[in-house]
Amino acid sequence: MRRTGWIGVVCVALSGCVILGYAGGGFGDAKFVAHRYEKLVREGWPKPFMAFANGANVDAEIALGRTLFYDESLSADGKVSCGSCHTSYTAFAHVDHKLSHGVFDREGRRNAPALMNLAWQSGFMWDGAIQHLELQSMAPIAAHTEMGMTLQDYLSGIKQNPRYQTLFAAAYQNQPISLPLALKAIARFELTFVSDQSRYDSMRRHQVRFTQQENRGYALYQKFCAACHAEPLFTRPEYEYNGWADGLRRVDSLGVGLSGLDRGRALVTGLVADEYHMKIPTLRNVEVSFPYMHNGAFQTLYQVVKSYSGKRLVVRGESGGLSKAGGISKVGGSGELVGSGESGEGYQTVIDISLDANERVDLVVFLLTLTDRKFLYSKDFVDPRQSPRKGD
Q: Which of 162, 194, 226 is the last residue of a domain?
């Protein structure tokens, strides 16, 4: 049976208040918001899963969300904020530790992922436990190993700060300060994390030409990587297994893991087919978002590429092991096709990855074209106490 994870907590915490645009269930249940924030529309990109309607108070909402994102006082030890684990200069990733560190230096169980192009995502966390951006920030706020606050104490901290009286009034006029509005403001700020100004993007717009080496790497990416990390977002709204637990996992007679390893998506769905599957991270800005993988296993891109060389990956594709009842997908890198089996694991693609030393370098060189320095160094994303934004 599929579990709802944080959703039960959400219903209690909001005391009947509704977060606009929330869609329960899996990715296939996500619905587009009717009115989109016009700056989120990108030519050649899919429609965003979520956006806000334009309004007179857009900048005020962003300013409020930005302040909340970087406010360490709203944590159990007064030292941790969203920005503590998500640094704008590293694509909102956390490069200091393999695993995230929270209040009282408590160690989390996963690597803090990079944050960008969030409007085009309908599932959050490595296991997809939360399926709406406005709800996502409640998880780190309440997590013992992250900000360590009760939602009631978090809201009290906001109400007791005179600065928030002014910021909320500017953003939401006569509406009282509330948790749903705080979460909405944080999401509004996070929706501005759009990365689309890399060298790759310039190539697609015919503004620059790739070098021969970049083109070789691009061809290798298309052959071995694109099944999971699809253009133009360089991700898919799915969960896959890349072999990280091979040789480590043990299962009982029912196939349930016994090793104590992170069960990934299975923690949410309860399905054996989802054991050790993780959300597919974007490759955009991957140059700076190390360490890599959900457990921070690798420090360099070359290490990642080398780890994949010689692997056989079975990519489940759009079904994610949950919906389609069998079938065969397009040919993978090996030229081999695989059916779904009796368990309904969906359409699958086999990819045999073979990269010699020169090809690994070529692939890394291509990955460097996905770095968007305008995004990384934008003053609009940093702590407002460091670089105030007009109107803050």
A: 194
- Cα 304 to chain center, whole Å? 19
Rounded to two decimals, what is the model's pTM?
Answer: 0.83
Do you know the residue count of the chain? 392
For 97, the domain range is 7-194
- H or E element at residue 14: helix 7-14
For 357, the enclosing helix (H) or strand (E) is helix 357-368
Q: Is the pLDDT of residue 151 over 70?
A: yes
**Inter-helix orientation angle 357-368/212-224, to 10°:** 100
Give just the sign of the alpha carbon dihedral 362, 363, 364, 370: positive
Residue 317 has a pLDDT of 64
> What is the phi/psi pair of residue 350, to 5°?
-95, 130
| The total number of structural domains that make up the chain | 2
pLDDT recorded at residue 27: 26
Q: What CATH number corresponds to the domain at position 146?
A: 1.10.760.10
Q: Which has the closest alpha carbon to 148: 102, 189, 199?
A: 102
Residues 181, 46 share a domain: yes
Helix (H) or strand (E) holding 350, with range, is strand 348-352
Segment 331-353 shows an average pLDDT of 55
